Amino acid sequence: MRRAIMVILDGLRRDFITEATTPRLMAFMRRAEYFPAFRSAFPSATRIVSATFATGCFPARHTLQGNAVALLEDGVLVPHDVGRPDFLLHKKAVTGQSLAVPTLAERLAPHGGAIVFNNVSPGAARAHDPDGFGHVYHRAFSVGPGLRPVDDPLRVNLDAAGDRAMTDRFITEVIRQRRPAPGVLWCGEPDHIQHNVPLGSPEHLTVPREADRHAGMVMDAVTRERDNGDDILLIVASDHGHETVSGVIDVEEDLIAAGLKHGPDSSDVVAMANGTATLVYLHPEAASRRAALDAHLRAAVWAGSVFSADTLGSVGHAPDHGLAFAVSMRTDDGLNAFGVPGRSLMAKPRWARPDRLGCGQHGGLGVFEQSPVLMIDSPDFKAGERRAGVVRIVDLAPTISRHLRVPAEGMDGVALQVGGAHGRPMMSTGFSLVSPPLSHGKSGSSP
């Protein structure tokens, strides 16, 4: 039986894979094919990455633009937290679509369906299958086809112990018993701890060790199933890395002070914080401010890379739904108190959320937040080799589809198997996607 199993260790950046901290991942790297230039989406945040993985398409196509977004509703730009479990249902009611392209769960529904176990935000879990074609298990909701609640919901906490309980259940139910064509295990650690303590601190480093054990448990279970004759594609990855928060910028207050936004609650200009990135929405009636906003953002000392309507395509976005600018906050290669490189400013979050100065954060184009992990093991990949060239989150869905022999037409990504497609396709929106710059500092240049 042909199957695909994917394990995501949320927030794990590449340089935290070491013999001392993650011995199972180090051993797996030696027997799998390793992708040292694997890149996240932009913003490099879990909810948008989840939709990008699930569809094999960039945000310009699937239309979920960030972890926090604005929607034009009855002539008003309304801010939304995508992490809410009901957000994509609301988006569908407002725009007519949860996501504008099919997910893997939808494509694979005629082939036995997909099962996802997820311990990050409810909105990120929902993005894998917002319209209910397969099964999604999350601590806030557990549903099957038709979004019907299941009889055996997932009941875990967002911590390493919760990930362990979820991993145990995933191995028993998904890998051994139910055996769907694709099974996805998306762990909440080490992302959760990294948002709450300094990177490299003793409190932090205990958690990647636990994440390493969870990945190792799945590797062992897959080996047993292969010994029984199953042809399993095994992907072990993360969705983004982290950088240390060096300062917090209230972007909306900055725009108000510059005379570019009327007030704190006005909907003429809405800046949506996405960690170390921000998305700036412009109401159609305020279109005359576009040039002034452009000039202000490019001159702002807190901005690293600025993308306007004509350059949003270079980071996989389109100027739709009022999105006028995307900004990656300024980064540098300085060290934190524990000697961990990579610091970034972050945009002050809405809804009284903590800013976590000195802890980990992500969302932008900094070197380390754009340094997730990717290792793939199957006969179609070269054991122990390092693949040169940029590979992206959008490439995973077509890779899984190719292994399962399911068509992947309409995806932006390319299958990564030996002998698979090469090069980056043209997007249906009419522009070619180029690699966004990895940045430290104002220039946005690669190191």
Provide structural commentary.
- The strands form 5 sheets. Strands 2-20-11-1-10-6-7-8-9 form a 9-stranded mixed sheet, with helices on both faces.
- The protein has 447 residues and is α/β, with parallel strands linked by helices.
- The protein contains 12 helices and 21 strands.
- It has 2 domains: 269 residues, Alkaline Phosphatase, subunit A, CATH 3.40.720; 118 residues, Gyrase A, domain 2, CATH 3.30.1360.
- The C terminus is likely disordered.
- The radius of gyration is 21 Å and the shape is globular.
- The longest helix has 26 residues.
- Helix 1 packs across helix 9 and helix 7 runs parallel beside helix 9.
Topology:
Blueprint: E1 2-9, H1 23-31, E2 33-34, E3 38-39, H2 46-55, H3 59-62, E4 68-73, E5 76-81, H4 87-95, H5 104-108, E6 115-118, H6 122-126, E7 135-138, E8 142-144, E9 148-149, H7 160-178, E10 182-187, H8 191-194, H9 202-227, E11 231-237, E12 243-249, H10 251-257, E13 269-273, E14 277-282, H11 290-299, E15 303-307, E16 323-329, E17 331-335, E18 341-347, E19 360-361, E20 374-377, E21 391-392, H12 396-404
Parallel strand pairs: 1-10, 1-11, 3-21, 6-7, 6-10, 12-18
Antiparallel strand pairs: 2-20, 4-5, 7-8, 8-9, 11-20, 12-19, 13-14, 14-16, 15-16, 17-18
Helix pairs in contact: 1-9, 7-9
